[in-house]
């Protein structure tokens, strides 16, 4: 294995580790679409279009991955979702 291949392998492994964690948002039949959209924009830095699409997926599928990344990045974001009354968890 060449040095270049080994380096690429290490970079790919590091990228995979960064994105193993994800915030999953669940449908709760309580919050409005507007509230969910506004909260996703605030907590997860979504664009309005992303937030709207996620809210529709959650409504029809029951859950949706709304953010992926490192645990250090996701923990405060998930806390913001929970503080806003949404049902979410980091998996």
Description:
- With 91 residues, this protein is an alpha+beta fold.
- The protein has one domain: Ribosomal Protein L30, Chain: A (2-Layer Sandwich), CATH 3.30.1390.
- It has helices at 3-18, 33-44, 48-61, 71-83; strands at residues 21-26, 63-69, 87-90.
- The chain has a three-stranded antiparallel sheet.
- The N and C termini lie far apart (34 Å).
Compile the SSE list and pairings:
Blueprint: H1 3-18, E1 21-26, H2 33-44, H3 48-61, E2 63-69, H4 71-83, E3 87-90
Helix pairs in contact: 2-3, 2-4
Q: Give the CA-CA distance, first to last residue.
A: 34 Å
Number of helices: 4
Low-confidence stretches: none
**Which structural class should the secondary elements be placed in?**
alpha+beta
* Highest-level CATH class: Alpha Beta
Instruction: Give the fraction of residues assigned to helices.
Output: 55-70%
What's the quaternary structure here?
single chain
Per CATH, the superfamily is: Ribosomal protein L7/L12, C-terminal domain/Adaptor protein ClpS
Q: What name is given to the CATH topology?
A: Ribosomal Protein L30, Chain: A
How confident overall, as mean pLDDT? Answer: 90
For the secondary structure, the number of strands is 3
Query: What is the N-to-C order of secondary-structure elements (H for helix, E for strand)?
Result: HEHHEHE
Largest sheet: 3 strands, antiparallel
């Amino acid at each position: 294995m060449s040095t270049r291949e080994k380096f690429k392998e290490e970079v790919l492994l590091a990228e995979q580790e960064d994105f193993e964690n994800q915030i999953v948002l669940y449908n709760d039949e309580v919050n409005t679409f507007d509230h969910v959209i506004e909260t996703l924009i605030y907590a997860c830095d979504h664009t309005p279009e992303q937030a709207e699409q996620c809210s529709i997926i959650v409504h029809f599928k029951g859950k949706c991955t709304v953010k992926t990344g490192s645990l250090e990045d996701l923990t405060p974001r998930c806390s913001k979702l929970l503080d806003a009354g949404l049902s979410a968890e980091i998996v």
